[in-house]
Structures
1.
Amino acid sequence: MLFSILTNTYLCSKLLSAAMLIIGIAGGSGSGKSTVVQKIIKGLPQGSVTVIPQDAYYKDNGHLTQEERARINFDHPSSIEFTLLDKHLSMLRKGFAVEMPIYSYLTCARAGESIPVKPTQVIIVEGILIFSNPRVRRHMDIKAFVDADPDDRLIRIIRRDILERGRSYNQVLTHYETYVKPMHLQFIEPTKRYADIIVPQGGANQVAIDILSSRIMLNLSREEQGKPS
């Protein structure tokens, strides 16, 4: 009896692993990644997709002083707890639920609670640095890099940081010049070479979004056809 239960659990995990599609969507800050993700999700069956944002895996810096927090380089790979992200993607692929952290840019700390995430047919991992880590990158069946002109990205960054992160206009520009631009050139732009698909103009590129959506729907259709009637 126990052997039968373990065997069935193993087979279910293997089937889920084979059917699950993990998609990585990377690109510079302000490139339009979130818009691309939203448009992809809009065209998929409800409940078939889960989004794993890289931002949830920033290291907990709640113990730092206000001055120290202001100097955190969020655009450097060392700011991300990739080990935990790698572990969670492995668990989801095997059919196990995970507890995703909740991170606040305002406090630079993780919340005491977490978000339960169950494995779904499609997992989308989104973030500026997700292609920079080989262990995380190996989980991805499809890798898309959202590209945009530096001027367009800067405009979006200014709007976002003022409205969502409480920074002044001058603070945004200083942060961009000190961290965002040099880190983009050093760590983010080079990862474009790992992409299977380049999405220029972000969410405005409906053709690229349709191609990604069609590939996902094909995977879902194959899985549906493979289910016993």
2.
Amino acid sequence: MGTLLSVTTSLMAQGISKNAIGFRLGDNDGFGAEISYQYYLVDNNRLEFDLGFRNSKNIDAFKLVGLYQWVQPIDKNFNWYVGAGGGLGSFNTPNNDGVFALITADLGIEYNLKIPLLISLDIRPELGFNDNYNDNVDLDIALGLRYQF
């Protein structure tokens, strides 16, 4: 019985948490911060939603991004993940305001600390759809810190 409990606990430690909320700080065309929420689905798959802003010399932008992610273990508390999704946002420049859409992918690594904290580093190429704001591929590289519950 003790062995079965130990094996079950070990397997659960390698999985992903049901919920995680925190911040994602990155840079693509200016500094950006996002409130980030992750929701476990099944079989190491999850959804991630990020609401944030981007700030540069000439543009301020807000965006909401949703991703479907596949998470795979590397080591005991260390995972890698890949995902795909899309988003919507609004922007403000000195000469123009508007909305935009984007499609995105995600590739990252994460580490589950011994406390209920998850730290991650990812790269997210984003393809924007608005000639006045962004109609090319930007790379969003970010550090994430999320509380797991």
3.
Amino acid sequence: MPTLAQQLGETAPVSFLVRKARRLGIAELDHAIEVAAIRGCKHYRSATPLAIPDPGLNRLSDDELTILLILGENAYHPTAIRCAAQLARSPRIDPHRLAALAVQHKAVRVLTHISRAGLAHDPEGRNFWITVLSNLPAAQAGSEPDLPHWSRFVSMPGIQKSGPAVTRWLTPIT
């Protein structure tokens, strides 16, 4: 399976965040998704939950976990990107720190994709996404066919008895 960086035609640096996660018992991308599910991204909980304990926010912040999910050295796993989009809207995320970590760990392209989708489709998080984007280097505008479509970051209930339901950005359930 190609890495996310290979899928996007980029090189993948080795991140100290991966080494930190491994020391904390998060050895695989599925483990990181499981920790995010424990932290409220229940939409991505495995049908057979893994026995991975949450190392705690003081040891691995939500900002770090979000970036860990979108690192280029990870296997190409669109579910991890979708999970990161949901976790990014945790109330414990600092948009300035999230952007800084993305720059530090070479995850700007994926976070920019998520943030542009958030800006366009998450009215409640508009200020958050503006702040993230304003703290990222300018990225070339255009579609990212290898990254999940914005519709994979939202809940779209469609038509209900009472009329059209509102599309909402998926956020962690705390």
4.
Amino acid sequence: MQSRTILRDLEAAGIGFAASVPCKQLAGVIAGLATSPRIRHLPATREDEGMGLCAGAFLGGLRPVMVMQNTGLGVCVNVLATLIQFYRLPLPMLISYRGEVGEAVACQAEMAIHTKPLLAQLHVPTYHFHHPRDVAELPGILAHVFTISKPVAVLMDAGFWRGDQP
């Protein structure tokens, strides 16, 4: 349900380009992007590559979105600061927030400790979706991104994804 709502909200916001890296939690969103007739989707091999593709899409006249895991945040800090922020490119980032209590992959837990502090240090406005109902905030957040011309992070934890069906 959340994946379909997110896709609908992205299309309604005029998103025309999406870059993504594989993610189990975001699989429904990524599958929807791959079949969307209104959003050109390009899978990336790394998060920094995806952000570069989003920057090019924006400069080419499309509204982009980056879809990634929080574990990839460390990979893209440089491009986020020196390209996206420096040139004031609006970029909504839909980020699965892995590593909380119950996480089965130990390295995910370590990155969860650093995710919010890294985003705060970079002055990236951050929203955290804990419950499926939080998706109702997405249209306003997407509008805000393109008003302020900055990257904005939307963290989506395991509680948010409970019961999602792609």
